[in-house]
Amino acid sequence: MLPKFKRCDLWTLRAVFPLSLCVLSLIAASYGQTQQVASVVHTRYTINSAVLGEERTILVRVPDNYERTDARYPVVYMLDAHPPQNAMMAGILEQQAWGGQIPEMILVGIQNTNRSRDLTPSDDGKGGSVGGGEKFLQFIEKEVIPLVEKNYRTQPYRIFAGHSLGGLAAIYCFSAHPDLFNAYIAASPTLSWDNNLVIRQAEKAFQERKVWNKTIFVGLGDEPDLSGGVNAFRDLLKKAKPKDLDYEFQQYPGENHASVVLRVYYAGLRKIYAGWLPPKSGSVAELEDHYKKLSERFGYTIPVPEELLNQIGYQFLRGGKVAEALSVFRRNAELYPNSANVYDSLAEALEKNGQTRQARETYEKAFKMAEAQGDEALANSSRKNFERLNNKQ
Questions:
Q1: Which helix (H) or strand (E) holds 70?
Q2: Per-residue model confidence as pLDDT tens digits over 317-346
Q3: Could you give the CA distance from residue 276 to residue 269 in angstroms, rounded to a whole number?
Q4: How far apart are CA 65 and CA 342, in angstroms?
Q5: 89 with 61: CB under 8 angstroms?
């Protein structure tokens, strides 16, 4: 049964998928004092913004096993974090990580007070409250990102996602402050704003900067009023050929301005993390080579996932290759020394190898660590195995 949360503080997205050993841990995680069971939880922060001169709200979602590990995570910063956008993006992140196609990530949803003001880069002379885009990016850079990186374990890889005027803001950020984020996803961006201002700005940036190391994904539905600006931006990229800028444009027939955002965010994440999934078969050395190459590509160390190594270890153990299983489980303990689960698995292999004393000591370490982390199921299982071996003395 899912716990009840105060409506003003937390939101939940119930998941109906079974957990996969290859991708997620078997035990649902807790956030703070609240136990999660296959759910996504968003925590609300209210920022008294000195940059904007008003209170602003952001929602932060962490992976469901966040509190049970010491892992660090890349971060998606998404504009328009109101229903249904935030739940939609959280669902994409959770489901695709569950499928192994992308890593687990932290989601930061930035809610709006005045979209037209914050998400437009200039005053187009047509009236209304517009043109606050630069100040809004300063708010993200100086107040939102520092809050997130102070309070959460993040990796140095940020994705910026926006829809409609939010897509315009994302491309403006790319052209004016490209190093604020590593990758950009723009759904139905209004790139014709102020006589293609952002496209002209991007053209100048391409002339001044030689190497980019960024990824951009732009998607559009059946939206002829937006296609002119999007096509102009695509043509500019084809002409300029910016070095190490990986980009893709897609159109989705049958989708309208509201419905297309799901497909664009999904496809944009898959574009950014193309090739993330490890080979279906291979040695531990081949897997480590795969993740070494990913580390070089994304700019931070990405080890072989704990769950994947654990699965390989058990494949060896079930096949009677105990020495090979021990080698894999020991490697997992080196990579994830704060995981109770890796010690429980290592203890099982030690016992199979006739190393009873070492197995007993490792089971003890596993259950004490699991207790400290609030993992009752694993603690009970490891404790029973420890007591069973202890009684054999």
A1: none
A2: 999 999 999 999 999 999 999 999 999 999
A3: 11
A4: 15
A5: no
CA–CA dist 290, 268 (Å, integer):
22
Q: Which of 207, 172, 226, 183 shows the shortest CA–CA distance to 76?
A: 183
Three-state DSSP state, 19: coil
- 54-61 and 39-49 beta bridge pairing: antiparallel
| SS3 category, 260 | helix
Q: Where in the chain is the domain with CATH 1.25.40.10?
A: 284-390
Which of residues 374 and 179 earns the better pLDDT score? 179
For 10-272, which CATH class?
A: alpha beta
This prediction has a pTM of 0.85
Q: Which amino acid is at 141?
A: E
Query: Measured between alpha carbons, how far is 275 from 284 in angstroms, rounded to an integer?
Result: 18
Phi/psi of residue 215, nearest 5 degrees: -125, 135
Helix (H) or strand (E) holding 30: strand 30-31
pLDDT value at 28 more than 50 = no
Right CATH number for 284-390 from 1.25.40.10, 1.20.59.10, 2.60.40.10, 3.30.110.30?
1.25.40.10
**Is residue 337 reached through a cis peptide bond, with omega within 30 degrees of 0 on the bond before it?**
no
Q: Would you give the end-to-end CA distance of the chain in angstroms?
A: 41
**Confidence at 264, pLDDT banded by 50, 70, 90:** very high
* DSSP codes of every residue in 86-108: HHHHHHHHHHHHHTTSS---EEE
